[in-house]
Amino acid sequence: MKQIITLIFVLFTFSWVSAQDDAVTFEATVSKKTLGINERLRVEFSMNQDGDNFNPPDFNNFRVVAGPSQSTSFSFTNGKRSFNRSYSYILQPTARGTFKIGQASIEIDDKIYKTVPVEVTVTAAVENPNAPPSADQIADENLHLVAEVSKSNPYLNEAVSVVYKLYFSSTVSIENFQPLDDPKYNNFWSQNIDIDQLQVEQGTYDGKRYRYVVLKKVVLYPQQSGELNIEPLSLDITVGVPTSRRDFFGRPIYEKTHKTVSAGSRKLNVKPLPTEGKPEEFSGAVGQFNFDVTVNKDSLRASESLMANVRVSGKGNLKLLTLPKLKTPSALETYDPEYEENVRVSLSGMQGSVSEDYTIVSRYKGKYPIPAVNFTYFDPETKSYKTITSKEIEINVLDGPTNNVAATQIPSGTNKQEVVSIGTDFRFIKIDPNLTSKTKSNFFKSTLYYVLLYLPLLLIPIVILARNKREAYVADVQGNKIRKANKLAKKYLSAARKTLGNKEAFYVALEKALHNYLKAKLHIETSEFSKEKISQLLAEKDVAQEDIHEFVNLLKSCELARYSPASEVTMQQDYDKAASVITKIDKQI
């Protein structure tokens, strides 16, 4: 008995310590953020650790009808103890307008914690103040699409990242969504950043805890100064909203509703680059860069070639800048450069390098300097122009003919230089080739003669056989329908097949494939995808009832499988069912 008591004490102590290690949360929630003056408001202050000296706010413009009512709950999950205590009030507004529920405070472990103020709007009286909020109202209060912009006042050609997040509370569930209108980034250079898989994360929006999903990431480089608009992203979302009804196990039954949410238009005030101190050779580079000019060798023989590399690396608008041109003496033959790009784009902007490789051919003996090259860029962090100068490079041609032109003469451009013959550049065709003739063989009665003679006779039965097979194929109407239906099923289900093994992604793709098939065949929109409507439309197309029943059951299976465990075998079976039912329905339609 002593050992049992000791074990219970140790487990309780361990659980209590684990709970103490959790971060303290103390927050305020309201039953609704918009209400009529004849309605009542429930305000709840909850914490995840026990505390003392709770002080409620002054409920200005509200009258306390009931409260505070206190509730405490404990739970153990995987050996970990969780605790929750809440104080709730029922308030009646006394005036119309927008008011704030102030900060409540509590003392936990000798520290004072305060809630974030909550804003509430009181409108005119409503007809039925005791009616529960509609599904649309609940969705509006618990669903927010936000565009988070990294900079609102960037310089011209400075990177700006935009992250679109969909915030939703634990009250509702997201069933499906699709974009209605993608933003057009006019006056911006833009690049989307791929998101491999949508992940649900925890965050805070408007002072309240939410779950959120990052839907889209894009990096923008403004190409024009002044006020620029970022168009909004709009989504059509199918939302599951809890009702007052319960299922057999006491869980709330969810009602589906469609909501259109928008991230809203965002404005950027793009600053022009300063004109003061702007160098003449500045060509639009903005960021933080390194610059150098290198050659693969500085000593060579006449008629040999070398490679000169002009390279800019670092962080900034690498894909948009212009590299400075390399100038060489006229005695060196320089060809147009080859451009090379090694740039990756992340939320912080472009990073990597861009370069140009020049092929240079030496023609004459001597020493030839390649002069220094300047590269100028604007640094938005220091708000100043910076210039990097490369080192002068001397090319030593060891042997070859001498040049009468001054070796140090530098051409004005970098185009390919005129080629000068040094006596060994060209070899002439011999005028006396000493050609010999060969006696032609007799074609008549040769092997090739007999092959060409009898080949048409051999091809005749092959052509007849191929034609008969083609006619049989065309005449097989039922077989062609089956093959066409199978091909169609594979087309719609290809995305689902790629995600076999990933339960959530597979059933999302499978459900989308079934919906897309119906949209293509029945010409209906996503908003009409109720099971009753689908059954009615398929019946009007004279589809067999057992096939309709199988299709609808498959849609239900996709919905339920997201919230229940499923093995790869089950997923394969559902995939095979989907392919089969699409084939059968398509043959009948």
Automatic annotation (TrEMBL):
Pfam families for the chain: BatD
InterPro entries, A to Z: BatD
Signal sequence range: 1-19
TM regions (residue ranges): 447-466
Protein name listed in UniProt: Oxygen tolerance
Keywords of this entry: Membrane, Signal, Transmembrane, Transmembrane helix
Domain of life: Bacteria
Record carries keyword Signal: yes
